[in-house]
Amino acid sequence: MKQPQRISSRLRSPSRWGRARRIVLVLLLAGLSGLIGACGERSAGDGDQAVRAEGERPARSPEERLQREERARALHEATRNLAPGEKVEALSDLAQLYHDTEVAPLAFMDLVFYLSDHSVDRQDDALAALESFERRRPEVPEVLAAANVMYSVATRKRDAASEPEARSALEAIRARALEIYVAAADRLAGSERVKDDWGSHYEMGNAYLLAGRHADAEAAWARVEAFETPAEDTKRIDLMIRRADLLRGPLDRRKDALELFLAVRGLQEHLGRAAPRAQRDYVAEAIEALRG
């Protein structure tokens, strides 16, 4: 899965701001009639949007769906040149009004990232965006990446917070993000959407690991070995080592762990110098300990 790309928090030049805003305005005006009829109005409540249920409007024609996808892609592209504060507003509109398009998951991911970024730092809004993302598009793997971002940021900020009240608030956000992270992993396990998707299986295993579900984490990472299109050797080695550590540790399956570490050593020998020395030493020590 493609991760959202961090941009500098440095303010853009006024001329570039103005040009980007004009681009967005023109695109929004061009699609205004479609938005009003198809998407409903924005809610003034919790930041989510009041969008009509599919059963309350006629199905869109293929031409209408194509036009909608094109508008969404153009709007997403136009957000690239906006400063973080303006970017989150544009992404919010895009993610909610075009929530059923292929671009929406990327917009939601970007929105969670920039709301939680230090230059914006709106953690409550970032969590609200993540929850909205899960409600609207629960089937897409991008929910995993967005939840991981939210969990990681909340963890880092909680650890750095000095006030008990702030730490408590961030811990609540962190716990909710982990809940969404694990729920997304459960939904996507076995899904055709993530077939041969190394990144999604890495995220699933990581979610389970953080939740203390070690057997599920090992199983998620083990599925990578059955991919029709094998992952790169370096990625396979990373997951195999993680699995082996779970097997020799909390899962207490030392024989399986030894077999896996031996398989890792075989891959490392195939890679030669491309395998990091520290990693080779770690595997050698693990094999020696398991044989002892």
Please give a handful of descriptors for the protein shown.
68% helix, disordered N terminus, single chain, two-stranded antiparallel ribbon, mainly alpha, globular
Uncertain regions spanning at least 5 consecutive residues: 1-20, 22-56
Molecular shape: globular
Number of strands: 2
Report the helical percentage.
55-70%
Q: Helix and strand string, N-terminal first? A: HHEEHHHHHHHHHHH
Strand content: under 5%
Q: Distance between the terminal alpha carbons, to the nearest Å?
A: 41 Å
Task: Let me know the average pLDDT.
Answer: 82
Number of helices: 13
* Radius of gyration of CA atoms, rounded to a whole number: 22 Å
The major pleated sheet works out as: 2 strands, antiparallel
Structural class: mainly alpha
Tell me the strand order in the biggest sheet.
1-2
